[in-house]
Amino acid sequence: MQEIVHIGRDGWLFLVGGSNNVLDQYRKDAFPPQHFHAWRRLLEDRVRRARGVGARYFHVVVPEKLSILADRADVKIDPDLAPSLALRRWLRNSLAWGSVVDMIAPFRSDPDRENLYLKTDSHWSLPACHRAYLTLCARMGVWPRVRLVPADPTFASLSGDLGTKLPVHRSEVLPAWTYPRTAELLHVNAYLQRILTERGATGGGVGTRAVFRNDAPGIDPRRIVLCGDSFAHHAFLPHVGALTAMFAETFREVHFFWATTVDWSYAAELRPDFILTEIAERFMATLPPANFEHESFARQMEAHAFGGRDS
Questions:
Q1: How many CB atoms sit inside 10 A of residue 186's CB?
Q2: What is the enclosing helix (H) or strand (E) of 238?
Q3: What is the spatial distance between Cα 179 and Cα 150, in angstroms, rounded to a whole number?
Q4: Fewer CB atoms inside 10 A, N or C side of the chain?
């Protein structure tokens, strides 16, 4: 039976198995050429469709912890076979080349790269999210407004999603960060409202939608549609970075979809200035659909999650 969580050096935990077979994604033959060709066509189509609704399109892949800290994993892989690097090679001379924002290079060159991920979790840290946010702002031509400051208390104890998968749970102590927040949650879809009511303010999941409004002085007056996964979570999370929460402190309006693709009908009606898609590197194994109707999908997810129980 393949292990799901690998215990590396100095207490570092790595996701290596699971439904995405993460470790296997670093083989030379992990994906056929058609897989990345399909990714190229999808991203090129997104660039064209974004232009059609008056928006600039950008796409970012969040590097797997193995892609950045393979030396701490103590496993036999070549991190240069990371799926996001393979995608970049396929995008040369592509219409989508300028729209895909690389995070491998800035993360690997970071002098504090060990602070970019949590030891006991599969997600990045708040400083890593901030590094990605700054990189994205630079590529998008947007003035970054988010500045991290130490939180009070300045350290916190956390047992991450990998630490809780071990027979004996593991936890870690890490610096705590925050930043000033002025954005207001303007709207959530019915599915997210039910999650917030029954599971708390940091609840979320595939199919949820949240809209933020920020009228703070000096805010960028433009609107962005952001489609992503847990790395782009709508809520401020003090230890695990969330891109949506940071962009909500940057733009007048942020429309967040927890999804791997874009609802182009929604985008055509909204006509945002930017469309940003984010995906965790391990999820690249599944090609997202070209389009979908989000609220119909959200109703399906709500029915699956809550069954026939009354609200």
A1: 14
A2: none
A3: 8
A4: N
CB 306 within 8 A of CB 86: no
Domain borders along the chain are 5-148+180-306
Q: Which tens digit of pLDDT belongs to each residue from 126-180?
A: 999 999 999 999 999 999 999 999 999 889 898 999 999 999 999 999 999 999 9
Tokens describing residue 309: 């129980």
**In DSSP terms, which residues pair with 278 in a beta bridge?**
60
How far is Cα 219 from Cα 43, in angstroms, rounded to an integer? 29
Q: Looking at this protein, which amino acid is placed at residue 174?
A: L
Cβ–Cβ < 8 Å for 35, 182 = no
Measured at the CA of 287, the angle between CA 41 and CA 117, to 5 degrees, comes to 115
Q: What are phi and psi of 152, to 5 degrees?
A: -125, 115
DSSP string, 167-230: SS---EEEEEEE-----EEEEE-HHHHHHHHHH-TT---TT-EEEEE---TT-EEEEEEEEESG
- Asked whether 106 and 131 are in contact (CB, 8 A), the reply is yes
Could you tell me the two tokens for 283? 């999820």
Tokens of 66: 């193995």
Terminal CA-CA length for the chain: 40
pLDDT of residue 277 exceeding 50, the answer is yes
